[in-house]
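Incident review: delayed structure delivery

Summary: a single-chain prediction request sat in the queue longer than the usual turnaround. Root cause was a stuck worker, restarted by the on-call engineer. No data loss occurred. The affected request and its eventual output are reproduced below so the record is complete for anyone auditing the incident later.

Affected input:
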Amino acid sequence: MKLLLVEDDPAMQLSLTRSFERRGLQVQAVGDGLKALERWAQWRPDVVVLDLSLPGLDGLDVLARARADSLKTPVLILTARGTVGDRILGLNVGADDYLPKPFDLDELMARIQALGRRSGVSPAPQRQTAFCGMQLDGDSGAVYFEDQVLELTPRESALLRALLARPGHAIAKERLFELVFPGELDVQLEAIEVVAYRLRKRIAHTGAQLVTLRGLGYLLKAGA
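Output delivered after worker restart:
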């Protein structure tokens, strides 16, 4: 799937781009309304994720011009402007879906997959990985233990998925923070420690150990 991400916040843009690419999408990202229109017409993406508050040209104007130019790509509006009026206006201009910030990354991905199916494409299937009886379903993002879904908060789930991708390998705290708190600039780095503490308790019965490595980050290993 080819996805055009139109987001003017650099941190959010980088975090989302990395998350999408890890899930098998081809991503091009722009932070300006006029550049978005140009890239849209040239690259012909399968799905567009569009912020509304953009420099150069407002997101709604980008969408209106694209539709006027017969660019029929499915569009998901992703914005902090989450009032009912904004949602109705966006849908009337030609948006296919609307998700207000802050959002859950798994929900965003599910909505993108749904829009991609309208274009006749879907993200590359993700291989399931297993560790200490835990299995990650790359399509749904759910984590199973002995065929039962682990009851995790979205942040705990994001952290566990990242660790399951490379069991036995240390992953930097900063990298994990980007995955667990995407685009949340008002959250301190130390918040990842709270999520790790809670996740450690959630998976204690699996036999896997979440290990803190001072100065390096965290890793997941099999218990003795």
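Verification: The chain has two domains: 2-118, 129-222.
Action items: add queue-age alerting; document worker restart procedure.
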